[in-house]
What does this fold into?
Amino acid sequence: MQKNVSISDLAQALYTVNRHAKTALKPQHLYWIKKQTIHKLLEEKLATKIGLHFSDHPKFSNQHSTLLVQVGNYYFHIPPSKQDFQELEHLGKLNRNFRNPSSKMSLSQAKRIVYQYIDWHPDENEKPEFQKKSSYYTPSSLGKMEWPPSRKKMGRRKHKQNNKNTSWK
It folds into this structure.
């Protein structure tokens, strides 16, 4: 583990990443770094497997289980391995009354801590995805300095249009 990252900070960072992943439009990367971090913590014996829970969100109407892992004072769910089903107790339904301690860490700080721990660096070639504009996109004129147009500019436009109209007659 990195010298300057405590288990408490890492647990808070995982909590923040997990919380943001639940509401993100594209949560795959956030869930991936959460899973990588927890697996590394388990390998280093800094996290503990507690047991299995039934998932609150069954896939394709089929009940499945998730692995409950404790990191510091926080608990997280990740997909279980086949070995987990053989070695760990099934705890049944998730206790909805239990909550992790709240944390005020920003997502950028949480990602920095997790990236440092798992030693992950984004590709320099990897460009951030920009949201594509709809073909129906109409730019707003709010905040434009030239609105409403001045009469001088309108006068020039009309004069040019009149010259165009008369030049071919």
